[in-house]
Amino acid sequence: GAGVSQSPSNKVTEKGKDVELRCDPISGHTALYWYRQSLGQGLEFLIYFQGNSAPDKSGLPSDRFSAERTGGSVSTLTIQRTQQEDSAVYLCASSLAPDLYNEQFFGPGTRLTVL
Amino acid sequence: AQSVSQHNHHVILSEAASLELGCNYSYGGTVNLFWYVQYPGQHLQLLLKYFSGDPLVKGIKGFEAEFIKSKFSFNLRKPSVQWSDTAEYFCAVNARNYGQNFVFGPGTRLSVLP
User: Fold this and answer.
1) pLDDT digit string (tens) for A16-57?
2) What angle (nearest 5°) sits at the alpha carbon of residue B10, between those of residues B7 and B13?
3) Is B100 on the interface with A (CB under 8 A)?
4) CA distance A39 to chain B (A)
């Protein structure tokens, strides 16, 4: 079946503009995760959804970052007033349930470049 | 705060050599431990995981990892690498009291020469 998909694959934007990144999880997966990978860094946890609610937003780096999930499926990560330090690859993952015994399946990522 | 370190940024081996990639974490409580791999042009995928029980965990493609609680380590090993093992390897830790928050290491790039 289809894996996790993300769009766009690449996004170049100007500093100060807003961007929206989209994640389509595997059908039936109730848990959804967003991560950020900056150049030479490991993956940085941003936020996690169980269904449409986000019990853990602890990783969002600032109030310019927000995320929502609708219908227990698609999620969007929005970055307002982008800054150059927001440039990174944004990865989405989903799992069947939030139980950590369930493997996370990762998407291909969105490469964001803020000029 | 939790943190994960990986000892090597880039490891270069010849085929059939043995591999050990180091991973150390900083958290004193109960942890779940993972190794993920990203092959060139592919998505991150789970290699193996440890939750409890036997500290020697076997994963896919002949990889194994050993959890040593006293050393806060979860090193990845393979007795004989192949060219197809060329990839980036990430160690990840979840401290059970931290819910779903995963902390990943910076990754180790493995290049296997044919």
Assistant:
1) 999 999 999 999 999 899 999 987 777 888 998 988 998 878
2) 110
3) yes
4) 10
The minimal CB distance from A106 to the residues B4, B44, B94 is found for B44
Question: To which residue do tokens 């969105």 refer?
Answer: A110
Task: Note whether A42 contacts B43, CB cutoff 8 Å.
Answer: no
Structure tokens at A113: 């470049």
Is B105 in the A-facing interface, judged by CB distances under 8 Å? yes
For residues A111 and B60, give the distance between their C-alpha atoms in angstroms, rounded to a whole number: 29
| A60-A76-B4-A10 Cα dihedral, nearest 10 degrees | -120
Give the DSSP H/E element, type plus range, for residue B44: strand B44-50
pLDDT digits (tens, 9 = 90+) for A49-85: 988 998 878 789 999 999 999 988 999 999 999 999 9
DSSP string covering A38-51, please? -TT--EEEEEEEET
